[in-house]
Design goal:
Blueprint lengths: L4 E5 L8 E3 L2 E5 L1 E2 L4 H15 L5 H12 L3 H9 L3 E2 L5 H13 L11 H12 L1 H13 L3 H29 L1
Parallel strand pairs: 1-3, 4-5
Antiparallel strand pairs: 2-3
Helix pairs in contact: 1-2, 2-4, 3-4
Amino acid sequence: ESGVILKVDKNDKFLDIRFEKGVLYIPELMLGNNTESQLRNLIAFEQCHYPWESFVVDYVLFLDSLIYDRRDVQVLINNGIILNSPGSSEDIYKLFGNISKGTTYSRGTFYYADVCRQLNEHCQTPWNRWKAILRQDYFSNPWSMISTIVAIVLLILTVVQTYCDIVQLKY
């Protein structure tokens, strides 16, 4: 609902998430049967040995903040960000929810703080919200777009016809 466009970033940098001009670039995430245990082990290692540098924790928390329900997971899958998922959207939703439950982070050193700030600024702009609502409600498929355009044209023609009738009565 905010008008943010998701795009896959094809670079090799796993943690390189960036936001530029309304587009959120996220690298591909290949999920498999062992993904949850691998992420949990990386988080445990990171929190034990590097508690002040929490890159993996921040990555998981950022993705968890993007995923509100299974429809959000489906959006990430449809945009090619999540690949080769062995489970359903509900399983992926639960995976990120479960992993992020026991993790802690510091707001002062959150790796994606700038990205979150830019996203929030973008989403709070009324123009971006209106564009997103228009795109979602009125231009979601070709038929709704055509019917909206036809309705606008008919409204304009009605106004022109009314104006012509008023001018004709006057003279």
